[in-house]
Amino acid sequence: NRLHATDVTSSSFRLVWPQLLSQDSGFYSLEYGPGGDPAARSTLQVSGAQSSLVLSQLAPATTYEVALIPESNVHYFPPQRTRVTTLPEEISPVQVLISDSGPRSFQVSWAPVLDSVATYQVLYGPLPGNSAKLLQVDGSHNSTLVEHLAPNTTYLVTVTAIYRSGKEKSLSAKACTLEGERGQ
């Protein structure tokens, strides 16, 4: 029955600890930071009534040292310590799918959709050629319709995930529009 972590992801985890204090008998100081870097530590004050807390916006694949210090004017409680390693960053996109192709449009979708992605950029242009156009898509979406295309043309489509951390990951796929009907 000690301080420990649950629900660990690449950017967050939940800390759970035994109920040592109450609302009236004190508060907790919570110190945490990447191991080996005292300068990067953060300190939070947590109500004595709480016995869990989610820490978020953490770095992936990093070991955090956490100390929970009960600040009580009634009893002395020794600090509780634990180490938690966040998961490696998930990568998006790992697949790009083209669907619903018509003469002048097609649907582009991708997976997975991650909280750590701020925005997606969809770059598309005819092959061969370098006249690419760019669409910006909100990071919570996983597809977009590309329109105003030329019939019977092969396009190169590149989906780039722009992470909140500033990192980028790209994946490309080819898409072919259908032949147009005569008289269009």
Automatic annotation (TrEMBL):
The keyword Glycoprotein applies. InterPro entries: ECM_Regulatory_Proteins, FN3_dom, FN3_sf, Ig-like_fold. SUPFAM superfamilies: Fibronectin type III. One of its GO terms (cellular component) is extracellular region. It is found in: Secreted, Extracellular space. Gene3D superfamilies: Immunoglobulins (2.60.40.10). Residues 1-90, 92-180 form the Fibronectin type-III domain. The keyword Secreted applies. Keywords: Glycoprotein, Repeat, Secreted, Signal. This is VWA1 protein. It comes from Nesospiza acunhae. The lineage of its organism: Eukaryota, Metazoa, Chordata, Craniata, Vertebrata.
